[in-house]
Amino acid sequence: MPITLVNDDFVLGVENASYDARSRVGHYEPFFEALSLDRYAFQREAMRRALLFLASENYTNTSVLATEHYNASAKLRGHFASQADYLDQFKLLDRKAVSLDLATGAGKSFVLYGIARVALAMGLVDKVLVLCPSLTIEEGLKDKFRQLSARQDLKQIMESLGAGYSNPPIKSANDPILDGDICVENIHAVYDRPGSSISHSFKGKGARTLVLNDEAHHIYSGAEATRWLEFLRSDEYGFRMIVGVSGTPYIDNDYFPDVVFRYGLKGAIEEGVVKRPNYATGRSSGGEATLAEILSNHEHNRQNYGAHAKPVSIIVTEKILACVQVWKSLVDELAKSMPLAEAEKKVIWVAS
């Protein structure tokens, strides 16, 4: 009978992390608790597990961790033809490289920031490089990181704990990245942008650099896949410590094999961390929703929930041209009740 595996079967345990690693990571528990409130305890656990793996001398690389998991799992041994077949699923087996599965909307930026800051505070690394797939995500991450860096309670906690770097500067690759810095950049700066300091700041320094990857599924699929993975593997940089975070950790239809913590969308919705989508299931027109119906529904949400949250209506199209056409039609519809310039500010089109 074929063995059926679920995503949880692939999640790697770090239970054999060394006592020293547990002590060092545990030292920063006050920081974890201040960064993530009780409702977001899963964020703290995600940070702990990633840092325990990175800090433990018992796990010299991902191969050691994966082999331990394979030997402890009868389901994996029954599913894969051999241990070698299982280990072949991993893309960065010879590094300290793992992933975190965090549902979209569960606060990945908090987790990335916490790992970066504690890794520097522990003296585990000298600098941190945070990579993401687009300029939009880069700007969002930098904004969030700078907001968190401005929190005096976090700074004071780190100072009281004797952190090596109590409040690391948040930089981009426009400036040299010095020891104690956190650099946030989109992957294009690595190989496309003249004047980037990535090469100067990180070549030959990978052993003392932590690389964090947001939306890590882009490393293995899509337009950037080959180049992004080659950068992480590059002998010129020599990166040893790599953590990826994604809400969709799949390579084609296969779940990431190197996940050490999972907080899926179903659990996030059940616990109220992520809102359950409220889809339109019926319409008076009996066919596709008209712009008038969409605007009416939006206004209904604004009147009922506007005091608590800003309602956003999203229209998804198959092609970019259709996206722009719908944008124009929606602006024209809004312009019937307000100036055109104001209507244009209320609608944006996004091509991804």
Written account of the structure:
This protein has 352 residues and is α/β, with parallel strands linked by helices. Helix content is 43%, strand content 12%. The protein has helices at residues 19-26, 29-35, 41-55, 62-72, 74-79, 83-87, 108-122, 135-149, 152-160, 188-191, 198-202, 225-233, 265-270, 291-305, 320-334, 340-345, and strands at residues 96-102, 127-132, 170-171, 182-186, 209-214, 241-246, 250-251, 254-255, 259-263. Strands 3-4-2-5-6-1-9 form a 7-stranded parallel sheet. The chain has a two-stranded antiparallel sheet with strand order 7-8. Helix 12 (225-233) links the parallel strand 5 (209-214) and strand 6. The protein is globular. The model has no long low-confidence stretch (mean pLDDT 89).
